[in-house]
Specification:
About 60% of the residues lie in helices and about 5% in strands. Strands 1, 2, 3, 4, 5 and 6 form a six-stranded mixed β-sheet that branches.
Amino acid sequence: MSPEQASGDRDLDGRSDIYSLACVLHEMLTGKRTWSRRSYDVTPGQALFRFAGAIEDRTKLVLEKALAWNPDDRYAKITEFADALVEASAARTSSTERTVGATTSLAIPAKSIAVLPFANMSVDPDNEYFSDGITEDIINRVAKMPDLKVTSRTSVMHYKHSKRSIREIGEELGVATALEGSVRRVGDRVRITAQLIDTRTDAHLWAEIYDRKLTDVFEIQSDVATHIAQALEATLSTAVRQRIHRRPTENVDAYTMYLLGVHHWNKFSPESGQKAVGYFKRAIELDEKYSLPYAGLADAYWAIGIEQESPPAKMFGYAKEAAHRALEIDSDLGDAHATLGAVQSWYEWDWNAADEIFARANDLTGFGSKPHLKWGLHLAAMGRHDEAIKQARESLVVDPVSPPANAHVALQHYWAGDLQQAVSQALKTLELDSTFLPARLWLGLALLHLDRFEEAVDRLQTTAELAGRNPIYLTMLSCAQAAAGRSQEAEALLAEVLLASQSAYVSPRALALMHAWLGDTQEALEWLDKAYQEHSAWMSFINVDPMWRPLWPLRRFRETVSAMGLAEVH
Protein backbone atom coordinates (compact mmCIF):
# COMPACT_ATOMS: atom_id res chain seq x y z
CA MET A 1 0.00 0.00 0.00
CA SER A 2 1.41 3.38 -1.01
CA PRO A 3 1.97 6.08 1.62
CA GLU A 4 -0.79 8.26 0.16
CA GLN A 5 -3.22 5.34 0.16
CA ALA A 6 -2.34 4.52 3.77
CA SER A 7 -2.74 8.11 4.95
CA GLY A 8 -5.79 8.92 2.84
CA ASP A 9 -4.65 12.53 2.51
CA ARG A 10 -4.75 12.80 -1.29
CA ASP A 11 -6.47 11.41 -4.36
CA LEU A 12 -4.96 8.23 -5.79
CA ASP A 13 -3.86 7.56 -9.35
CA GLY A 14 -1.74 5.01 -11.22
CA ARG A 15 1.41 6.06 -9.41
CA SER A 16 0.04 4.37 -6.27
CA ASP A 17 -0.13 1.08 -8.20
CA ILE A 18 3.44 1.63 -9.46
CA TYR A 19 4.53 1.92 -5.82
CA SER A 20 2.76 -1.34 -4.89
CA LEU A 21 4.24 -3.19 -7.85
CA ALA A 22 7.72 -1.97 -6.89
CA CYS A 23 7.21 -3.36 -3.36
CA VAL A 24 6.38 -6.77 -4.82
CA LEU A 25 9.38 -6.70 -7.17
CA HIS A 26 11.69 -5.72 -4.32
CA GLU A 27 10.52 -8.69 -2.24
CA MET A 28 10.89 -11.04 -5.23
CA LEU A 29 14.48 -9.90 -5.74
CA THR A 30 15.60 -9.95 -2.13
CA GLY A 31 13.28 -12.36 -0.31
CA LYS A 32 12.65 -9.58 2.21
CA ARG A 33 9.94 -7.01 2.72
CA THR A 34 10.68 -3.52 1.46
CA TRP A 35 10.04 -1.96 4.84
CA SER A 36 11.40 -3.12 8.17
CA ARG A 37 8.36 -1.83 10.08
CA ARG A 38 4.69 -2.57 9.69
CA SER A 39 3.55 1.05 9.91
CA TYR A 40 4.39 4.25 8.11
CA ASP A 41 5.89 6.02 11.12
CA VAL A 42 9.29 5.98 9.42
CA THR A 43 10.88 8.78 7.48
CA PRO A 44 11.37 8.30 3.74
CA GLY A 45 14.40 6.16 3.08
CA GLN A 46 14.95 5.21 6.75
CA ALA A 47 14.08 1.54 6.38
CA LEU A 48 14.15 1.17 2.60
CA PHE A 49 16.50 -1.41 1.14
CA ARG A 50 17.91 -2.79 4.33
CA PHE A 51 18.62 -5.92 2.29
CA ALA A 52 19.48 -4.10 -0.92
CA GLY A 53 22.85 -5.78 -1.30
CA ALA A 54 21.04 -8.50 -3.23
CA ILE A 55 19.94 -6.01 -5.91
CA GLU A 56 22.17 -4.86 -8.74
CA ASP A 57 22.82 -1.10 -8.54
CA ARG A 58 20.97 -0.07 -11.70
CA THR A 59 17.87 -2.04 -10.77
CA LYS A 60 18.06 -0.59 -7.28
CA LEU A 61 17.96 2.95 -8.70
CA VAL A 62 14.85 2.10 -10.74
CA LEU A 63 13.08 0.65 -7.70
CA GLU A 64 14.03 3.62 -5.55
CA LYS A 65 12.36 5.97 -8.02
CA ALA A 66 9.24 3.80 -8.14
CA LEU A 67 9.18 3.68 -4.31
CA ALA A 68 9.58 7.42 -3.83
CA TRP A 69 7.58 8.72 -0.86
CA ASN A 70 6.14 11.57 -2.94
CA PRO A 71 4.09 10.34 -5.94
CA ASP A 72 5.43 13.28 -8.00
CA ASP A 73 8.92 11.75 -7.72
CA ARG A 74 7.86 8.37 -9.13
CA TYR A 75 7.48 7.26 -12.74
CA ALA A 76 4.46 8.96 -14.27
CA LYS A 77 3.39 5.89 -16.28
CA ILE A 78 3.77 2.15 -15.89
CA THR A 79 5.41 1.98 -19.33
CA GLU A 80 8.20 4.25 -18.10
CA PHE A 81 8.76 1.96 -15.12
CA ALA A 82 8.80 -1.11 -17.38
CA ASP A 83 11.25 0.46 -19.84
CA ALA A 84 13.58 1.42 -17.01
CA LEU A 85 13.54 -2.13 -15.66
CA VAL A 86 14.34 -3.55 -19.09
CA GLU A 87 17.30 -1.19 -19.46
CA ALA A 88 18.58 -2.11 -16.00
CA SER A 89 18.27 -5.81 -16.78
CA ALA A 90 20.18 -5.39 -20.04
CA ALA A 91 22.95 -3.53 -18.24
CA ARG A 92 23.18 -6.27 -15.61
CA THR A 93 23.43 -9.16 -18.06
CA SER A 94 25.96 -7.42 -20.31
CA SER A 95 29.63 -7.41 -19.41
CA THR A 96 31.26 -4.08 -18.66
CA GLU A 97 33.34 -4.27 -21.81
CA ARG A 98 30.33 -4.95 -24.02
CA THR A 99 28.46 -2.08 -22.37
CA VAL A 100 31.31 0.28 -23.20
CA GLY A 101 31.50 -1.06 -26.72
CA ALA A 102 27.81 -0.43 -27.29
CA THR A 103 28.32 3.27 -26.63
CA THR A 104 31.47 3.75 -28.66
CA SER A 105 30.97 1.70 -31.79
CA LEU A 106 27.96 3.58 -33.17
CA ALA A 107 30.12 5.51 -35.65
CA ILE A 108 33.71 4.46 -36.14
CA PRO A 109 35.83 6.95 -38.11
CA ALA A 110 38.15 5.42 -40.69
CA LYS A 111 41.09 7.49 -39.41
CA SER A 112 41.12 6.10 -35.90
CA ILE A 113 43.56 3.89 -34.01
CA ALA A 114 44.26 2.23 -30.68
CA VAL A 115 47.91 1.52 -29.90
CA LEU A 116 47.54 -1.60 -27.78
CA PRO A 117 49.99 -2.39 -24.98
CA PHE A 118 53.20 -3.79 -26.45
CA ALA A 119 54.06 -7.17 -24.95
CA ASN A 120 57.19 -7.37 -22.82
CA MET A 121 59.30 -10.12 -24.38
CA SER A 122 62.39 -9.38 -22.28
CA VAL A 123 63.80 -12.07 -20.02
CA ASP A 124 63.48 -9.69 -17.06
CA PRO A 125 59.79 -9.09 -16.19
CA ASP A 126 60.81 -5.83 -14.52
CA ASN A 127 61.28 -4.43 -18.03
CA GLU A 128 57.48 -4.15 -18.21
CA TYR A 129 57.87 -0.41 -17.60
CA PHE A 130 59.94 -0.19 -20.80
CA SER A 131 57.38 -1.89 -23.04
CA ASP A 132 54.62 0.24 -21.49
CA GLY A 133 56.75 3.32 -22.11
CA ILE A 134 57.24 2.42 -25.77
CA THR A 135 53.45 2.05 -26.06
CA GLU A 136 52.82 5.48 -24.54
CA ASP A 137 55.51 7.19 -26.62
CA ILE A 138 54.03 5.84 -29.86
CA ILE A 139 50.58 6.98 -28.72
CA ASN A 140 51.94 10.47 -28.08
CA ARG A 141 53.61 10.64 -31.48
CA VAL A 142 50.56 9.40 -33.36
CA ALA A 143 48.32 11.76 -31.37
CA LYS A 144 50.19 14.71 -32.89
CA MET A 145 48.34 14.05 -36.16
CA PRO A 146 45.37 16.44 -36.07
CA ASP A 147 42.95 14.44 -38.25
CA LEU A 148 43.49 11.11 -36.47
CA LYS A 149 41.40 9.87 -33.54
CA VAL A 150 43.78 8.15 -31.11
CA THR A 151 42.64 6.23 -28.02
CA SER A 152 44.36 7.40 -24.85
CA ARG A 153 46.82 5.34 -22.83
CA THR A 154 44.49 4.71 -19.88
CA SER A 155 41.90 2.99 -22.04
CA VAL A 156 44.30 0.86 -24.09
CA MET A 157 46.00 -0.36 -20.92
CA HIS A 158 42.63 -1.81 -19.98
CA TYR A 159 43.40 -4.48 -22.61
CA LYS A 160 46.81 -5.46 -21.31
CA HIS A 161 46.97 -9.27 -21.27
CA SER A 162 43.39 -9.31 -22.59
CA LYS A 163 42.23 -12.28 -24.61
CA ARG A 164 39.63 -10.28 -26.49
CA SER A 165 39.89 -10.27 -30.27
CA ILE A 166 41.06 -7.29 -32.28
CA ARG A 167 37.56 -7.00 -33.72
CA GLU A 168 36.00 -6.84 -30.24
CA ILE A 169 38.54 -4.28 -29.03
CA GLY A 170 37.93 -2.14 -32.09
CA GLU A 171 34.18 -2.14 -31.45
CA GLU A 172 34.59 -1.35 -27.76
CA LEU A 173 37.04 1.51 -28.33
CA GLY A 174 35.38 2.77 -31.49
CA VAL A 175 38.48 2.54 -33.70
CA ALA A 176 39.00 1.22 -37.21
CA THR A 177 42.62 0.12 -36.71
CA ALA A 178 44.82 -1.22 -33.94
CA LEU A 179 48.58 -1.36 -33.58
CA GLU A 180 49.95 -4.29 -31.62
CA GLY A 181 53.51 -5.39 -31.05
CA SER A 182 56.22 -6.52 -28.67
CA VAL A 183 59.42 -5.21 -27.12
CA ARG A 184 62.52 -7.20 -26.21
CA ARG A 185 65.37 -5.37 -24.49
CA VAL A 186 68.76 -7.02 -23.95
CA GLY A 187 71.62 -4.83 -22.76
CA ASP A 188 72.02 -1.96 -25.19
CA ARG A 189 69.91 -3.63 -27.89
CA VAL A 190 66.17 -3.48 -28.44
CA ARG A 191 63.96 -5.54 -30.74
CA ILE A 192 60.52 -4.11 -31.51
CA THR A 193 57.83 -5.69 -33.65
CA ALA A 194 54.78 -3.78 -34.79
CA GLN A 195 51.78 -4.56 -36.96
CA LEU A 196 48.83 -2.40 -37.96
CA ILE A 197 45.52 -4.26 -38.25
CA ASP A 198 42.09 -3.33 -39.60
CA THR A 199 39.79 -4.11 -36.65
CA ARG A 200 36.80 -4.72 -38.92
CA THR A 201 38.43 -7.27 -41.26
CA ASP A 202 41.53 -8.46 -39.34
CA ALA A 203 43.55 -7.49 -42.43
CA HIS A 204 47.21 -6.56 -41.81
CA LEU A 205 47.85 -3.09 -43.21
CA TRP A 206 51.55 -2.88 -42.32
CA ALA A 207 54.15 -4.77 -40.27
CA GLU A 208 57.80 -4.30 -39.40
CA ILE A 209 60.54 -5.73 -37.17
CA TYR A 210 63.21 -3.42 -35.77
CA ASP A 211 66.44 -4.78 -34.32
CA ARG A 212 68.51 -1.79 -33.30
CA LYS A 213 70.65 -0.20 -30.63
CA LEU A 214 68.76 1.22 -27.68
CA THR A 215 69.88 4.70 -28.76
CA ASP A 216 67.76 4.26 -31.92
CA VAL A 217 64.50 3.83 -29.99
CA PHE A 218 63.21 7.30 -30.92
CA GLU A 219 63.82 6.69 -34.62
CA ILE A 220 61.84 3.44 -34.34
CA GLN A 221 58.92 5.25 -32.74
CA SER A 222 58.97 7.95 -35.41
CA ASP A 223 59.12 5.35 -38.18
CA VAL A 224 56.12 3.47 -36.73
CA ALA A 225 54.13 6.70 -36.46
CA THR A 226 55.01 7.67 -40.05
CA HIS A 227 53.90 4.30 -41.43
CA ILE A 228 50.63 4.58 -39.51
CA ALA A 229 50.06 8.00 -41.05
CA GLN A 230 50.72 6.61 -44.53
CA ALA A 231 48.43 3.62 -44.03
CA LEU A 232 45.57 5.78 -42.74
CA GLU A 233 46.25 8.63 -45.18
CA ALA A 234 46.60 11.09 -42.31
CA THR A 235 47.57 14.66 -43.13
CA LEU A 236 51.12 15.51 -42.04
CA SER A 237 52.14 19.15 -42.19
CA THR A 238 55.79 20.12 -41.98
CA ALA A 239 55.32 21.17 -38.34
CA VAL A 240 53.66 17.86 -37.45
CA ARG A 241 56.42 15.88 -39.17
CA GLN A 242 59.01 17.79 -37.17
CA ARG A 243 57.23 17.04 -33.91
CA ILE A 244 56.91 13.35 -34.76
CA HIS A 245 60.62 13.05 -35.57
CA ARG A 246 61.88 15.17 -32.68
CA ARG A 247 64.31 13.42 -30.30
CA PRO A 248 63.31 14.44 -26.77
CA THR A 249 66.75 13.58 -25.33
CA GLU A 250 70.11 12.19 -26.37
CA ASN A 251 70.58 10.52 -22.99
CA VAL A 252 69.15 6.98 -22.92
CA ASP A 253 69.56 6.75 -19.15
CA ALA A 254 67.49 9.90 -18.72
CA TYR A 255 64.85 8.38 -20.98
CA THR A 256 64.85 5.22 -18.86
CA MET A 257 64.38 7.27 -15.66
CA TYR A 258 61.52 9.15 -17.30
CA LEU A 259 59.79 5.91 -18.31
CA LEU A 260 60.12 4.62 -14.74
CA GLY A 261 58.55 7.87 -13.53
CA VAL A 262 55.61 7.48 -15.91
CA HIS A 263 55.26 3.82 -14.90
CA HIS A 264 54.91 4.67 -11.21
CA TRP A 265 52.77 7.75 -11.81
CA ASN A 266 50.20 5.68 -13.66
CA LYS A 267 49.68 3.46 -10.61
CA PHE A 268 47.65 6.29 -9.00
CA SER A 269 48.70 5.78 -5.37
CA PRO A 270 50.42 8.17 -2.91
CA GLU A 271 53.44 5.87 -2.60
CA SER A 272 53.89 5.43 -6.35
CA GLY A 273 53.35 9.16 -6.85
CA GLN A 274 56.33 9.96 -4.65
CA LYS A 275 58.42 7.37 -6.53
CA ALA A 276 57.40 8.99 -9.81
CA VAL A 277 58.58 12.38 -8.57
CA GLY A 278 61.94 10.85 -7.66
CA TYR A 279 62.43 9.28 -11.09
CA PHE A 280 61.41 12.48 -12.91
CA LYS A 281 63.97 14.40 -10.86
CA ARG A 282 66.63 11.81 -11.65
CA ALA A 283 65.87 12.12 -15.38
CA ILE A 284 66.30 15.90 -15.12
CA GLU A 285 69.63 15.46 -13.32
CA LEU A 286 70.84 13.34 -16.24
CA ASP A 287 69.56 15.80 -18.87
CA GLU A 288 68.42 19.20 -17.64
CA LYS A 289 67.15 20.08 -21.14
CA TYR A 290 64.78 17.10 -21.32
CA SER A 291 61.30 18.66 -21.31
CA LEU A 292 59.10 15.62 -20.62
CA PRO A 293 60.27 14.94 -17.03
CA TYR A 294 59.49 18.58 -16.19
CA ALA A 295 55.99 18.13 -17.61
CA GLY A 296 55.64 14.90 -15.61
CA LEU A 297 56.76 16.70 -12.45
CA ALA A 298 54.27 19.51 -13.06
CA ASP A 299 51.40 17.07 -13.44
CA ALA A 300 52.46 15.11 -10.36
CA TYR A 301 52.78 18.19 -8.15
CA TRP A 302 49.41 19.52 -9.33
CA ALA A 303 47.73 16.19 -8.56
CA ILE A 304 49.36 16.02 -5.11
CA GLY A 305 48.16 19.58 -4.54
CA ILE A 306 44.53 18.76 -5.25
CA GLU A 307 44.73 15.78 -2.89
CA GLN A 308 45.09 18.42 -0.13
CA GLU A 309 47.85 16.59 1.72
CA SER A 310 50.28 19.54 1.59
CA PRO A 311 49.89 23.34 1.81
CA PRO A 312 48.71 24.57 -1.60
CA ALA A 313 51.43 27.21 -1.98
CA LYS A 314 54.06 24.49 -1.86
CA MET A 315 52.68 21.94 -4.34
CA PHE A 316 51.06 24.35 -6.78
CA GLY A 317 54.20 26.47 -6.69
CA TYR A 318 56.30 23.45 -7.61
CA ALA A 319 53.83 22.55 -10.38
CA LYS A 320 53.95 26.05 -11.86
CA GLU A 321 57.74 26.14 -11.81
CA ALA A 322 58.07 22.72 -13.48
CA ALA A 323 55.46 23.55 -16.15
CA HIS A 324 57.23 26.81 -17.01
CA ARG A 325 60.55 25.00 -17.34
CA ALA A 326 59.02 22.34 -19.59
CA LEU A 327 57.57 25.03 -21.87
CA GLU A 328 60.85 26.95 -21.98
CA ILE A 329 62.38 23.82 -23.51
CA ASP A 330 59.42 22.82 -25.71
CA SER A 331 56.62 25.36 -26.12
CA ASP A 332 54.43 22.79 -27.91
CA LEU A 333 53.83 20.54 -24.89
CA GLY A 334 50.05 20.52 -24.58
CA ASP A 335 50.11 18.69 -21.24
CA ALA A 336 52.41 21.29 -19.70
CA HIS A 337 50.18 24.12 -20.93
CA ALA A 338 47.15 22.38 -19.44
CA THR A 339 48.86 21.93 -16.06
CA LEU A 340 49.90 25.58 -16.05
CA GLY A 341 46.31 26.57 -16.81
CA ALA A 342 45.11 24.35 -13.98
CA VAL A 343 47.47 26.08 -11.54
CA GLN A 344 46.14 29.48 -12.66
CA SER A 345 42.59 28.26 -12.07
CA TRP A 346 43.04 26.24 -8.86
CA TYR A 347 45.57 28.39 -7.01
CA GLU A 348 46.24 31.73 -8.67
CA TRP A 349 42.51 32.34 -9.35
CA ASP A 350 43.54 34.17 -12.50
CA TRP A 351 40.57 33.07 -14.58
CA ASN A 352 41.41 35.04 -17.74
CA ALA A 353 44.98 33.75 -17.82
CA ALA A 354 43.69 30.21 -17.37
CA ASP A 355 41.27 30.69 -20.30
CA GLU A 356 44.13 31.79 -22.57
CA ILE A 357 46.43 28.96 -21.53
CA PHE A 358 43.79 26.29 -22.03
CA ALA A 359 42.96 27.75 -25.44
CA ARG A 360 46.65 27.41 -26.34
CA ALA A 361 46.68 23.81 -25.13
CA ASN A 362 43.61 23.08 -27.23
CA ASP A 363 45.27 24.51 -30.33
CA LEU A 364 48.15 22.06 -29.97
CA THR A 365 47.81 18.58 -31.40
CA GLY A 366 47.66 15.69 -28.99
CA PHE A 367 45.15 17.39 -26.65
CA GLY A 368 44.33 14.20 -24.72
CA SER A 369 42.06 13.25 -21.85
CA LYS A 370 44.12 14.87 -19.05
CA PRO A 371 44.03 18.35 -20.61
CA HIS A 372 40.30 17.91 -21.32
CA LEU A 373 39.80 17.03 -17.66
CA LYS A 374 41.73 20.07 -16.40
CA TRP A 375 40.00 22.44 -18.79
CA GLY A 376 36.62 21.01 -17.83
CA LEU A 377 37.34 21.68 -14.15
CA HIS A 378 38.18 25.30 -14.95
CA LEU A 379 34.98 25.75 -16.99
CA ALA A 380 32.93 24.35 -14.11
CA ALA A 381 34.45 26.92 -11.73
CA MET A 382 33.31 29.59 -14.18
CA GLY A 383 29.77 28.20 -14.03
CA ARG A 384 29.99 27.23 -17.72
CA HIS A 385 28.50 23.81 -17.13
CA ASP A 386 27.46 22.96 -20.68
CA GLU A 387 31.01 23.56 -21.91
CA ALA A 388 32.47 21.70 -18.93
CA ILE A 389 30.32 18.64 -19.58
CA LYS A 390 31.28 18.79 -23.25
CA GLN A 391 34.97 18.69 -22.30
CA ALA A 392 34.31 15.75 -19.99
CA ARG A 393 32.45 13.89 -22.71
CA GLU A 394 35.21 14.60 -25.24
CA SER A 395 37.72 13.00 -22.89
CA LEU A 396 35.67 9.80 -23.18
CA VAL A 397 36.12 9.81 -26.95
CA VAL A 398 39.84 9.15 -26.52
CA ASP A 399 39.58 7.43 -23.12
CA PRO A 400 36.30 5.46 -23.11
CA VAL A 401 37.19 2.86 -20.45
CA SER A 402 39.25 5.12 -18.18
CA PRO A 403 37.91 5.34 -14.59
CA PRO A 404 39.28 8.91 -14.12
CA ALA A 405 37.66 10.12 -17.35
CA ASN A 406 34.34 8.46 -16.53
CA ALA A 407 34.37 9.74 -12.94
CA HIS A 408 35.05 13.24 -14.27
CA VAL A 409 31.79 13.11 -16.22
CA ALA A 410 29.98 12.18 -12.99
CA LEU A 411 31.60 15.11 -11.19
CA GLN A 412 30.61 17.60 -13.87
CA HIS A 413 26.97 16.49 -13.75
CA TYR A 414 27.09 16.72 -9.96
CA TRP A 415 28.30 20.33 -10.09
CA ALA A 416 25.74 21.16 -12.78
CA GLY A 417 22.95 19.99 -10.47
CA ASP A 418 22.06 16.95 -12.59
CA LEU A 419 22.30 14.62 -9.61
CA GLN A 420 20.53 11.60 -11.07
CA GLN A 421 22.86 11.64 -14.06
CA ALA A 422 25.81 11.98 -11.69
CA VAL A 423 24.67 8.86 -9.84
CA SER A 424 24.26 6.92 -13.08
CA GLN A 425 27.68 7.94 -14.40
CA ALA A 426 29.39 7.16 -11.08
CA LEU A 427 27.88 3.68 -11.17
CA LYS A 428 29.17 3.20 -14.73
CA THR A 429 32.63 4.17 -13.52
CA LEU A 430 32.47 1.67 -10.67
CA GLU A 431 31.61 -1.05 -13.19
CA LEU A 432 35.05 -0.34 -14.69
CA ASP A 433 36.81 -0.19 -11.32
CA SER A 434 34.84 -0.83 -8.15
CA THR A 435 37.70 0.52 -5.99
CA PHE A 436 38.11 3.89 -7.74
CA LEU A 437 37.75 6.33 -4.83
CA PRO A 438 36.71 9.53 -6.69
CA ALA A 439 33.77 7.72 -8.31
CA ARG A 440 32.72 6.39 -4.90
CA LEU A 441 32.98 9.90 -3.48
CA TRP A 442 30.89 11.59 -6.20
CA LEU A 443 28.29 8.85 -5.91
CA GLY A 444 27.98 9.34 -2.16
CA LEU A 445 27.75 13.12 -2.45
CA ALA A 446 25.15 12.97 -5.24
CA LEU A 447 23.05 10.66 -3.06
CA LEU A 448 23.44 13.12 -0.17
CA HIS A 449 22.00 15.97 -2.23
CA LEU A 450 19.20 13.73 -3.45
CA ASP A 451 18.26 13.53 0.27
CA ARG A 452 19.05 9.81 0.32
CA PHE A 453 20.93 10.39 3.53
CA GLU A 454 21.36 6.92 4.95
CA GLU A 455 22.49 5.47 1.65
CA ALA A 456 24.94 8.37 1.27
CA VAL A 457 26.32 7.67 4.74
CA ASP A 458 26.75 3.97 3.93
CA ARG A 459 28.55 4.72 0.67
CA LEU A 460 30.82 7.36 2.18
CA GLN A 461 31.58 5.21 5.23
CA THR A 462 32.93 2.45 2.99
CA THR A 463 34.83 4.95 0.87
CA ALA A 464 36.47 6.56 3.90
CA GLU A 465 37.68 3.16 5.11
CA LEU A 466 39.05 2.29 1.66
CA ALA A 467 40.86 5.65 1.67
CA GLY A 468 42.56 4.81 4.97
CA ARG A 469 40.45 7.35 6.86
CA ASN A 470 41.94 10.18 4.85
CA PRO A 471 40.73 13.50 6.37
CA ILE A 472 39.12 14.61 3.11
CA TYR A 473 36.94 11.50 2.90
CA LEU A 474 36.16 11.72 6.62
CA THR A 475 35.03 15.30 6.01
CA MET A 476 32.43 14.27 3.46
CA LEU A 477 31.26 11.39 5.66
CA SER A 478 30.86 13.78 8.58
CA CYS A 479 28.73 16.13 6.46
CA ALA A 480 26.49 13.25 5.38
CA GLN A 481 26.10 12.08 8.96
CA ALA A 482 25.10 15.56 10.03
CA ALA A 483 22.52 15.71 7.22
CA ALA A 484 21.15 12.33 8.32
CA GLY A 485 20.67 13.63 11.87
CA ARG A 486 23.58 11.64 13.27
CA SER A 487 25.26 14.68 14.80
CA GLN A 488 27.19 12.79 17.49
CA GLU A 489 28.92 10.65 14.87
CA ALA A 490 29.58 13.74 12.74
CA GLU A 491 31.13 15.56 15.71
CA ALA A 492 33.28 12.54 16.50
CA LEU A 493 34.71 12.66 12.98
CA LEU A 494 35.33 16.39 13.33
CA ALA A 495 37.31 15.68 16.49
CA GLU A 496 39.29 12.98 14.65
CA VAL A 497 40.17 15.35 11.82
CA LEU A 498 41.14 18.13 14.25
CA LEU A 499 43.43 15.68 16.05
CA ALA A 500 45.01 14.67 12.73
CA SER A 501 45.65 18.34 11.92
CA GLN A 502 48.05 18.55 14.87
CA SER A 503 50.56 16.25 13.18
CA ALA A 504 49.82 16.66 9.46
CA TYR A 505 48.38 19.23 7.07
CA VAL A 506 44.58 19.36 6.95
CA SER A 507 42.92 21.82 4.61
CA PRO A 508 40.88 24.56 6.35
CA ARG A 509 38.31 23.94 3.63
CA ALA A 510 37.57 20.56 5.20
CA LEU A 511 37.04 22.06 8.64
CA ALA A 512 34.82 24.79 7.21
CA LEU A 513 32.56 22.21 5.58
CA MET A 514 32.21 20.04 8.68
CA HIS A 515 31.30 23.00 10.87
CA ALA A 516 28.83 24.25 8.25
CA TRP A 517 26.91 20.98 8.10
CA LEU A 518 26.89 20.72 11.89
CA GLY A 519 25.23 24.14 11.99
CA ASP A 520 28.15 26.00 13.57
CA THR A 521 27.99 28.83 11.06
CA GLN A 522 30.37 31.26 12.76
CA GLU A 523 33.11 28.66 13.10
CA ALA A 524 32.54 27.57 9.49
CA LEU A 525 33.01 31.13 8.26
CA GLU A 526 36.23 31.51 10.25
CA TRP A 527 37.67 28.40 8.61
CA LEU A 528 36.38 29.62 5.23
CA ASP A 529 38.40 32.81 5.69
CA LYS A 530 41.52 30.72 6.37
CA ALA A 531 40.85 28.63 3.26
CA TYR A 532 40.47 31.84 1.25
CA GLN A 533 43.71 33.28 2.60
CA GLU A 534 45.79 30.22 1.70
CA HIS A 535 43.98 29.55 -1.61
CA SER A 536 43.04 26.03 -0.51
CA ALA A 537 42.57 23.38 -3.19
CA TRP A 538 38.96 23.00 -4.42
CA MET A 539 38.07 26.54 -3.25
CA SER A 540 37.65 27.41 -6.95
CA PHE A 541 34.33 25.56 -6.91
CA ILE A 542 32.61 27.06 -3.85
CA ASN A 543 30.02 28.76 -6.07
CA VAL A 544 28.99 25.52 -7.82
CA ASP A 545 29.68 22.75 -5.30
CA PRO A 546 26.47 22.00 -3.34
CA MET A 547 28.58 20.96 -0.34
CA TRP A 548 28.73 24.70 0.41
CA ARG A 549 24.95 25.07 0.30
CA PRO A 550 24.59 25.67 4.08
CA LEU A 551 26.64 28.86 3.64
CA TRP A 552 25.39 30.01 0.24
CA PRO A 553 22.72 32.43 1.56
CA LEU A 554 25.17 34.26 3.88
CA ARG A 555 26.49 37.70 2.94
CA ARG A 556 29.99 36.89 4.18
CA PHE A 557 30.14 33.78 1.99
CA ARG A 558 28.97 35.69 -1.07
CA GLU A 559 31.58 38.35 -0.42
CA THR A 560 34.23 35.60 -0.51
CA VAL A 561 32.89 34.37 -3.84
CA SER A 562 33.01 37.91 -5.22
CA ALA A 563 36.54 38.50 -3.89
CA MET A 564 37.70 35.39 -5.75
CA GLY A 565 36.29 36.79 -8.98
CA LEU A 566 33.83 33.92 -9.38
CA ALA A 567 30.32 34.05 -10.81
CA GLU A 568 27.28 34.35 -8.53
CA VAL A 569 26.28 31.27 -6.59
CA HIS A 570 23.70 29.40 -8.66
